[in-house]
Amino acid sequence: MPYTLSPDETYGLDIENTDYLKDHVQSPDRWILNFGPAHPATHTTLRVVLELDGERIARVTPHIGYLHSGFEKLGEHHDWNQYVCTVSRMDYSSPIVNDIAWHNSVEKLLGIDVNPRCKVIRTIMSEMGRLQSHLLCAGAAALDLGAFTGFLYGFNEREFIYDIMEYVSGQRYHPDWTRVGGAWRDLPDDEVFKRMVKNFIHVRMAKSLTDLESLLNRNRIFRDRLEGVGAISMEDAIAWSLTGPVARASGVRRDVRKNDPYLCFEDNWDGQGAEAVKFNVAVASAGDCFSRYLIRMEEMKQSIAIIDQLIDKIPGGSINVGADSKTVIPEKGDVYGSIEGTIQLFELVMHNRGWDVPLGESYSCVESPNGELGFFVVGGGGKYPWRARCRPPCFVNYQSIAKLLEGHQLADAVAVIGSLNIIAAELDR
User: Fold this and answer.
1) Does residue 58 fall inside a structural domain?
2) Are residues 142 and 277 in the same domain?
3) Contact of 125 with 183, CB cutoff 8 Å
């Protein structure tokens, strides 16, 4: 063993009770280091207690709770549309994906199949969210290791994604755009939206990916800091229930878009025999930090290919399901021109009104940038969820941090944490 602690002593610690340090001291040089929360790499929300044997990490005890928001409990006090403003805050690096995931679950509970136009636009927006998250993660991976230029190359392009989000939803950072059965508003202009997206994926993203790969892929310092660091085998990745790029970097060929398809990732998404969008699932085998970086770079290329397949095929018609469902705000013409439309608008927007959901439960998941993001929803027959529970990918992936770090050097901690792309708001909900 490269360190003085044996693996079976790794778990079951009560870090608040320092007496445990007296029980297993095998070296007089043991040092306890609090890595975070006041550390740039932990974003003031993570605390990782490290036991060091010299420069070697001998024991890791992760702590969460520095960003406790009670998101899941809030779901019991917000109606089915209001809660979208909360779920988007769980993953603030790609909030639009959370919006879509939540309303996919609610629509499954209600048995609502959204219109083809809504499916296409949601698919495009979810892949834009994937680009948004992966650009940040790839850039931050370089920044955490001291390469500020790589961070700028990745982060700069996210501003143009914000422009697209603002055009579609009216808000840059937290779109809060989806609604049960559709969206709060349709695209202002289809052609303008197409031009913005095409320019971004074909011009700006193409150059950004080329610049990032030229700067990092063959950079000796970058590769030496990532290759062989924080590796986990395919068997262990499955045993730890890891998902997303972290799992696929270890050879786990699972992607919710393929294994449990939704929106335009399933065949016959338009009800007229349309084929599912085509893309390749990026898989590596080394399972280390560098593999996780490469997976995210390849996934960005696949996201561009997905968007490119759909951007010229946005169907016409309404983005919302029919008004007879009583779950969506009617068209303005119906509101101004009929008493039924006026009454429906009143019922939906008034604080103490709304529509009742039948008794039942459902679970639906999407492939978020960090892995499987699912919502378990229980309808209690009222206007609010009886229970709203989340399966956040970061919470599940973060549990493996001790296994990934122990035995490595202290300097490797930043690289490993960065490769997991931990979003702290998902940890303690």
Assistant:
1) yes
2) yes
3) no
Give yes or no: residues 222 and 138 share one domain: yes
- 295 and 282 in contact (C-beta within 8 Å)? yes
Q: pLDDT-based confidence at 1, cuts 50/70/90?
A: very low
What is the 8-class DSSP label of residue 384? S
Residue 3's region, left for phi above 0, alpha for psi from -120 to 50, else beta, is beta
- Six-digit token pair at 164? 């697209």
Q: What is the pLDDT of residues 283-301, one digit of tens each?
A: 998 889 999 999 999 999 9
Q: Looking at the structure, do residues 148 and 219 belong to the same domain, yes or no?
A: yes
Integer Cα distance of 406 and 325 in angstroms: 54
Residues 222, 241: Cα–Cα separation, whole Å: 28
Structure-model confidence comparison of residues 67 and 1, the more confident one: 67
- Give a yes or no: residue 30 inside a domain: yes
DSSP letters, 216-229, are HTT-HHHHHHHTTS
Token pair recorded at residue 250: 């270890």
As for how many domains the chain has, the answer is 2
β partners of residue 378: 361, 387
Q: How many CB atoms lie within 10 A of CB 170?
A: 13
Are 153 and 296 found together in one domain? yes
Residue 192, H or E segment: helix 190-199
- Residues of the domain holding 286: 114-322+395-403+410-426
Query: What mean pLDDT comes out for the span 231-255?
Result: 93
Q: Tokens representing 39?
A: 């550390």
Question: 295 and 170, same structural domain?
Answer: yes
Here the CATH number for the domain that contains residue 219 is: 1.10.645.10
Is residue 120 in a domain? Answer: yes
Closest CA to 240 of 118, 406, 411, 401: 401
Is there a domain that residue 350 lies in?
no
Output the pLDDT for position 104.
92
Instruction: Name the residue with higher pLDDT: 336 or 267.
Output: 267
Spatial CB neighbours of 306, under 8 Å, sequence gap ≥ 6: 123, 127, 277, 279
Per residue in 355-365, pLDDT (tens digit) is: 667 788 889 99
Residues 50 and 148 in one domain: no
Length of the chain in terms of residues written:
429
